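My current task is to audit a protein record that another person submitted. Thanks in advance; the entry in question is below:
***
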Amino acid sequence: MKFWDFLWMLMGQYAGGPGPKENNLMRFGIPAVIWAILLWVAWSRQRRQELPRERMLLLGFGLGFVREAFMFLHIASKILTGTETEACVVEPIEHALAMAALIVIAASFLRYILDDSTLARRYLRVGLLITALCYLITFLLWPRYSVLYPGVHFHHTWFSWLFHIASPLLIAWAIYALSRGQGWLRNVVSLALTLFLLAEALALANYSTGSTYNYIICRVANTLHILAVPILGYVYFREQTLEKEAVDAQLRAYRDHLEELVDARTTALSQTNMQLQQEIVERQLTQAALAQLSHRNELILGSAGEGIFGIDQEGKHIFVNPAAAQMLGYTIDELIGCPSHSTWHHSYPDGTPYPEAECPIHVGYRTGSERSGDDQVFWRKDGSSFPARYVSTPFYQNEELTGAVVVFQDITEHKIFEEEITRSNTELAAQNIIAATLSQSLHLDAVLNTALDTVLSILEIENGGIFLLDPLNNLLTLCAYRSGVSPEMHLPYLPPLRLDECLSGACILEMHPLVTRIADLPIDSKRFDTAIFIVENNPQFLICAPLISRGKAVGALLLATQHPDAVPPHRLELLGAIGQQIGMAVENARLYQETEDLAEQLTMLHQANIALSSPLTLVQLYDQITGLAAKLLDCQIACLYTWDNDTQTVENVSTYASDPEELENLDVPLSELPCLEELIMHHRSIAIENGRTDPRVPPQWCKAFGVHGLLCLPLWSKSEPLGLLFVIDRRAPRQWRGDEIILGQSFANRAAISLENAYLNLEIEKTATMHERERIAAELHDGVGQTLSYMGLQVDQVMQLDGIAQHPQGEPQLEGVRRAVEQATRELRAAINHLRSRQAPRKALYDLLKDIVQTFTTEHQAPVHLAQDNGAPLFLSADKNEQIARIVQEAISNAARHAQPQRIDVVLAKQGNTISITVADDGRGFDPANVRQDVGQHFGLNIMQARAARIDGQVTVESAPGQGTRVTLTFPGG
């Protein structure tokens, strides 16, 4: 039994399960190491040879390693931090990774063992789809479930059943499919999958028994899972052994083959030696026959296509074949006996005399050396010339130099071909230089300036510029410029040009290079893109080439020169090719800039997400949303309106302006916006390019906001609208790009989530506050209320005693105590009723103050008067109304209790975005300095200040002895 106990303890420590968390480190650490080894082996094999199975196994082993490493790090973090809470996203990710890894591995072996790619693809798609569905369900529902039922474990809920039911079914499908195969590989893979299946089956058994045997089943299931991983590793090591044996067998076979080749080559060399000896005999016979063929050679010489003639030591022709006479324009008789150099080699190509001493042919037959080349020019009888390739070979008689034989060809066509090749090579080199130069940077300005400098250098032109096309407006803008008069890299001002008013536009419309004389240009054209060149350089010719990318023009290259042959016709093709290179570079630079802008936008969106996720009050969240929206979309103003679904009204809660001084003039109602219904009802964003001409933007908005570009973004929860976000660009009309609209919608969605969370938190706080108020009301009723009742009874009993008549001076005092107890009881009941009262229907602020004044006047018979400077109704949130009511009640109560006033005035006023409520009395007043020195004895004022701070307001007190008191509450509102 000790052995089994040891084995059981070993399984607990290495397989994990119930018990110390440290045991689970081995449970996930060991498979992680094995998965990592398998991943490295698969990657090594894939690198040596492209194998479909290894590519899929790389994914499967990678997913297995990620799952084990992820859980190892999760357990390790819990041990290191000492926390016991479970992250609600860990379990769904763990199960999804494990299930996806098994599916990919099984699919790869199905394809390799059964050689059935269709079955493997079907299995992989079905398995990954089921995995995705299981993960999606658990990802959406499990976090809420874990919040509703704190402390519940993922493994004890139906969420894990989704994975543990789907996974064994898919594994069983793979095992059944593998049963059609044969061989050791099928058996080993089936065994590993069977262990995984048993582990999942034990998990299901554990759930079906209500985790009664969790302590046993969990260890056994985890052990089976761990054992299955090295069995898959056995496949690789077994295959490597078999591959090594196969390679050794091939090497032995190749060595045997080489030995056979050596024997065969030795035999072949012996036979070749015999054949050489026989050829020597045959050559001797051939030399004898050559003498007989000499006459025939003369006949052949006459029919040769190359020019052939003989020259004696004096340089005179001794024989000439017909081809040579024809190429030189003479007859054979005219050449025989004539000096060769003075007849057809007397001048250089430019016509200057060619001294005979410098002639390589003359030097050849004089010195007996062989000369050849293709750099000479032969002259015809009619005075024309042609380039020639020649070979001058000396000949001897009786070992004495007697002359030379010259063989030559007319290579005029060859020279033309060479020039074409040279020109093509030059153009290719120029294009390579352009390509190499343009590849050094992806920034548009650097690309344009570098390209212009390189083109001017290659074409040896000093003046040029590059215009880029705005495809939306069909306008050309000068983006790079070089002038020989002003070598510094300055860019002169030139307004955007239409395509139909400039040479560059004509080149773009025709889509091919143009060469134009300045004198041929219409007078009107000289005012546009060519004006800067004419003013500074006074050129004679303009060369323009379109910049083309993917069949579309992106701009034009404009060059100015004094020389008409600066760009010959064949160079225009080169200029067109260069234009395509520059056009592609411009397109790449724009794509790179768009990619950088997108990355920057994603970074800003991530930062905004972090900012919105931080703990904020609702007002701070409103301001954060508008500020981040304006900065994210590079605008100057952003306005946030909340939507009340009950009253179907909107309220401006925050406005951001890049210039804080403009905020006072930005209070504009939203009710006049024509597209309000579309935004609220259809959940659709609206992008307006120019608000000053678009009828969907009211004139009041244009006047207040200076609207040019406007992006309207609805903020929706899952089922209803939460508000509207307006982002305004005041600078100029703005063409909203698709990525900007998507960015704004993404931010609006994230802001809506933050708002919904904030509202939920407020509801939770309200619920908690109501419970606390109920508790306080009950305690006041059962504690202070009972005490006051008892004191009243005691006073009544004292007043009924017989001895009270002997002390008549005490009766008024007892009456005063009795009235004080009754007053305290009334106030206590009012406080209890207020604490127990539910939220009343929404009221205007003036109506709320009116109720407070009427109630106070009725209960206390005090002269309180209410006035309002601004007749427009002001509706505030319930929280603000609550705090304002308590502050006003406290101020009126203090005035009536301490000041002994003849009149109390309550005045409601609104100035800009600031609301003020003033409670003033004409009582005896007091010295505020004494109040500040004795702060601890004046709790009412402290409480009022605290309540004002909750609505971002403040309370000020103005008073003097004998001059009454003025208490003013100011707070922001709309």
Q: What stands out?
A: The first helix runs from residue 2 to 15. The mean pLDDT is 75. The radius of gyration is 50 Å. The chain has 26 helices and 21 strands.
